[in-house]
Amino acid sequence: MPIGDLSLAQALLAARRSTTPAAVPADDVPVAQAYATQRAVHVALTLPVMVWKLGLTSEGARMAHGAHEPAVGRLPASDIFCNHGTIDFCGDEMFAEAELVFELGEDLPPRAQAYTRAEVAAALKGVWAGIEIVRTRFEHSDLPLGLLIADNVMGYGLVLGDRLATGWEARFAAMPVTLTLDADAPVAGSTDRVMGDPLDALVWLANWLCVHGEGGLRAEQLVAAGSCTGVTEIHRGDTIVAAFDQAGIARVVLSA
């Protein structure tokens, strides 16, 4: 890891282990250093990656952050929350995103040749409804690209909902999705907000992991493919439901 990232990694690790947020640095960090920082924080947790998460999967989100590609984060198994469960509200602000979640049934190890849609689809053994819970470890969430990546793309946890299918189906390319908080009007979205087709997002990730020395995708890992509904702020006591057409839901309650 570049030496300049050491203090940032330590600050983010300390913020993860406590209720005290890290100060936002005055300057952004380059993307390569940001990923090195993110990796260093995860390594310090001594837990394997169970979930790869994609952020900035819409063109608008990438333009807002000056990014030319999606952003990647990682979560251990301890950050996976049960469907219909309750989780604690923590920090000053938290957000929710409805996301399609892929489950790998086979390894997609590093190789020189890029993986194709057909190869990636064949490696799947499950497609799930999900809710990503998002929060920053910094003092506020208005972050430039490098600090966003260093902060694990603000990944906090994944609610794994209903299993929608045992593999990829064409209906998932443009499936209507809603995110509802209590009795509020649903936030409408679609799976095609994820790079035009969430399977393309998964293919991009499989190849990105190969190129960047992350060991590829492995059987049993999950991939939260990106937000289908945008980012919605959530509050204490909220009941959050992500509904994927008539296929299934993910649901979680925030403690009051």
Automatic annotation (TrEMBL):
InterPro entries linked to this entry: Fumarylacetoacetase_C_sf (IPR036663), Hydratase-Decarb/MhpD_sf (IPR050772)
SUPFAM superfamilies for this protein: FAH (SSF56529)
Protein name: 2-keto-4-pentenoate hydratase
Organism, scientific name: Novosphingobium pokkalii
